[in-house]
Amino acid sequence: MQKTLKKYFIIFLIPTLIAFAIAFVVPFIMGVYLSFAKFTTVTNSTWVGLDNYIKIFTINNDFTNALWFTVKFTVVSVITVNVIAFILAKFLTRGIRGTNIFRTVFFMPNLIGGIVLGYIWQILINGILLNFGVTLTFDAKYGFWGLIFLMNWQMIGYMMVIYIAGLQNIPDDLLEAAAIDGATAWQTLRKVTLPLIASSITICTFLTLSNSFKLFDQNLALTGGAPMRETTMLALDIYDTFYGRTGYQGVGQAKAVIFFVLVGIIAFIQLKISRSREVES
Amino acid sequence: MNTNSIIKKRKSTVANVLIFILLFCLSLVFLVPIFVVILNSFKGKFYISKAPFALPTSETFAGLDNYINGIVKSGFTNAMGYSFFITVASVIVIIILTSMTAWYITRRKSKLTSGIYYLFVFSMIVPFQMVMFSTVKIANMLHIDNPIGIVVLYLGFGAGLAVFIFSGFVKGIPIEIEEAAMIDGCNPLQTFFRVVLPILRPTAITVAILQAMWVWNDYLLPMLVIGNKYKTIPVAVQGVLTGTYGARDMGSLMAMLVLAIIPIIVFYLVAQKSIIKGVIAGAVKG
After folding, report:
1. Is the Cβ pair A123, B272 closer than 8 Å?
2. Residues B252, B186 share a domain
3. What is the pLDDT of residues B214-253, one digit of tens each?
């Protein structure tokens, strides 16, 4: 079988590999190189060493501000999304009437794209803030909490569905045994339920983590970074550096490399945690 | 039944009723944003920002004006066409080609194929911003900056997740089935399309749903690569808002948002079970 397969390398692999090279491999290598170069299009680059990386932190504070805002946003959204999603999952595994309809409703926003979601919430939040005589872009804190609300609205249903799948895998006799032994609801939750859905918790935590950290469409649509770039997240800051003004493409690419390294670290930690859990079980 | 358990039971019925009420209120909160947009899409454009939560009255009711304006101004029917074409074409191409690739690199073990596999997995964690600028330039240079050419880019970007999911399932197929087919005279292509692909059907549906949701909603790639000439729905919506088509018109924006949501909700209600199953499978794998 191995021998016959060998001859079919071109048919099975080449089409995907060509597309993969055009979209990812070549641009990735170019991207790493261009972060050390000055350029306006990719063909007129000159090597400048670490210049771009130094410029990120010396020209202005945009990148560090965006990083700080992104980290704050990510922490708050990971906690709120997961806590609420878990509570809803608990509620929807009690056999309450209408469970299916509730699940359908809570999950639905997840399918709507980031741009459309962003504008829906912009209109809604502005409508509410109108009563107080301000708008969404009046103060960065409105933008921050607006993004948190939007993220919760979008992600809760998704995480809830994963938690429900985890909760349904817990054998009933374990919960019954805990009840017979006189465990309180809180004890059952902490000592039985949570340890048994640990893998769902890991998955959901890292999904919300990386989705929040890489957020772009929603950020662009809801506030566009206003006021004064105070609600700009990392992805939007990189985009603005690339396309905002000419001559800064190299700095934008250097920011993108740092962004990639940060995302890579998050993914690496996730891999380590789920690996060690597999070994345990 | 002793009194103790009766009390417990009554307690839990009370709790269930309270939870039901809570969930009911919460689902209203989840639905309100969509209702507000639908409501406002029937109001005159000057009345929207002033009182976004008011019901349309005879004075503010605008009929289908917003829809007509929005569709005409932004070329929404074209946007719908481009979005639909790009999504369907990309998903079909991704499913066929990446399942072939995944099968091949799982069945033919060598240093090269496992290297290719890890490269695909690696591509899943790289954020788009890292390759954004170079990819767009390369797409321009190769003249694939049109609705057909962009399918190549979606195949390239979608390959990571798709190959990863397919490979996981190919490993679970007993190799004896394929060997039997080969002995019976099938060449690898026949073996793949007649034997392997039918077994992979449920996985293919999962991959198709994940990719369709991503391509349909994607904004940045179509905006940067083909946004000038061919606007997909997200690009057209963003265009109406930022005033690409003249002054910002809240009325047509509302109508556009409604039109953008409708296909998604229809798709969701039709294929809800597979979508939720696909999302869980995708999450657990990713």
Report:
1. no
2. yes
3. 999 999 999 999 988 899 999 988 887 766 555 667 888 8
Distance of alpha carbon A151 from alpha carbon A170, whole angstroms: 29
Option in B155, B188, B268 nearest A19 (CB): B155
Beta bridge partners of B43: B61
Residue A66: list chain B partners with CB under 8 A: none
Say how far apart CA B9 and CA B3 lie, in whole Å.
Answer: 10
B11 within a domain of the structure (yes/no):
no
Interchain proximity B139–A22, CB inside 8 Å: yes
Q: What confidence tens digit (pLDDT) does each residue in B37-79 have? A: 888 888 887 777 677 777 777 777 877 888 888 788 778 889 9
The list of chain B residues with pLDDT below 70 reads 1-11, 49, 242-248, 284-286
pTM: 0.91
Spatial separation of the C-alpha atoms in residues B7 and B134, rounded to whole Å? 68
Nearest CA distance, B72 vs chain A (angstrom): 19
Q: How high is the mean pLDDT of chain A? A: 91
pLDDT at B1: 47
Q: Copy the structure tokens of residue A190.
A: 């902490």
What is the full DSSP assignment across B120-133?
Answer: HHHHHHS-HHHHHH
Yes or no: domain A56-280 corresponds to CATH 1.10.3720.10 = yes
- Token pair in block for residue B223: 């905006």
- Domain span including residue B43: 32-63
A9 interfaces chain B, CB cutoff of 8 Å: yes
Between chain A and chain B, the number of residue pairs with CB atoms below 8 A apart is: 259
Is A107 within 8 Å of chain B by CB?
yes
Per the structure, the count of domains in chain B is 2
Helix (H, G, I), strand (E, B) or coil at A38: strand
Distance CA B83, CA A90 (A): 38
Binary contact (A19, B139; C-beta < 8 A):
no
